[in-house]
Fold this protein.
Amino acid sequence: MSFREEMLLDFDLRAPRILADGRSGIIDNVKSLILLTEDAVIADCGKRFISVRGTRLTITFLEDERMFLEGNIEAVEFYGEKDAHE
Amino acid sequence: MSEWKFRRWKKIKIEGFQLHRFISAAATRGIGFRGLRMVDECQAEAQVDARQFAALKKAAGNRYRITVVGQFGLESRLRQLLHRTATCVGLLAFFAIIYYQSCFISEVQITGYEHLTEEQIRKSLAELGFYPGALKSYDLADLKTSLYSELGDIAWVGITYQGTLARVEILEAAVTPEREDTSETAHIVADRSGYIESMVVKEGVAQKQKGDFVQEGDLLISGLVPITDKSYTRKPDELFRSVHAQGEVKARVLYRIRRYQPAYSVTLAPTGRRFPGLRLKFGQWQWDSDRLYRPFEVSRREEATLMQMLHPLPVQFALYWENEVEVCLSKRLPEEIQRRAQQQCRQAIKEILPKDGQFVKNDLSFSEKENIIEVIMLIHSIETIGTDQPFSAPVPEPSEQEEAPAVP
């Protein structure tokens, strides 16, 4: 990957991006929350949706389009190509 | 994230349908959430910045109910603390005591002294108001100046504070022995009476021998040294050379000292009756229960200090038993009198003997007079007794040839 491509990816504010391990996860570019329960969190990240499933999920902080999740994360899913529908 | 610790934030409960929509809308308006947890489908718990709470309430409108569960953060803690008057007063008192404590000297450490004694320096410092328990706001420059004049042979004084500990460092001046002025003519005479033990003449003529008894003022070494005139040209009064007599004369000096002792000793026999009491001391103020009631005329006190402290407050608390005693007179034993006389003798030796005096022996004699025993001590001591006595050298009369010419 070239430097240009890397920069474009990093600063793409509509790209669904998640950094997660089994206990916590950081989701960037959160535009809105679609579903919020103790077992699942679905966030609209601009181009796509990110679905995090697990148990005892808590949003440790939600600020400036960044969400820090804590709990037992079991699955992460990306779906809904919004641009394709638009 | 660390700024959250310093913020004043509120723990809230949000109730309503489709809570994710409300949270998304609030997040879009720049309202941050922390510790967001869904309790059930219609209820969530979160923490928000207190400054954003009004905006959140506005965003919630009538569709969502927001309840404040608690307030947290450093700012909130401080606000809570300020409302607790007793805690604030306690904290202020604590810091005030700490500050008050640090205003006083708890210990004075003295180093560097050689010829002077620590007790001497401490005494001088105490006289100048610098002692454990004194205020620290003392003018150190002034103290140093006073200490120089008080102690004399000091080259340098350094006083530093380390907390409440005061360090006094002293550097003594080198002592140079005074040189004897031998330019003027002088005899050596006895400055006290005694029997001559030894005589070392460095300059002059010895006038006494070993074993001679000399009175105060007697000539020991003469400063007039005879000259043998083999040319027979000098007059009889010119046959002496005047010098500053030098030498060491040691003599056995006798001191006759009289001391007294009681013939009877007083003993205090306990009767078995006793009474309790207490004593309380706070700084200089003292209270004793015997001020209220004094059960016995003659008593002896057995005291146990239960509490004694200097910090934070100088308090002393003690309990005691006042034991009644009976005063009995009994004749003293000869051994006891002898022992006490020896003590008196040692004390007298310490008082009267000069620094260079060498104690040889003592003779004791006792005589009883009514209720008093008289102890007569004869102390023998070897001492240097010579002292300089200046004299003017005899001026030879001018000869006839040297006489001034007569006025015509």
Summary: The helical segments of chain B are 3-6, 19-28, 53-60, 74-83, 85-102, 118-127, 140-151, 334-352. The CA atoms of residues 29 and 55 of chain B lie 9 Å apart. Chain B touches chain A at residues 1, 4, 19-21, 23-25, 27-28, 30, 32-38, 41, 44, 46 (CB under 8 Å).
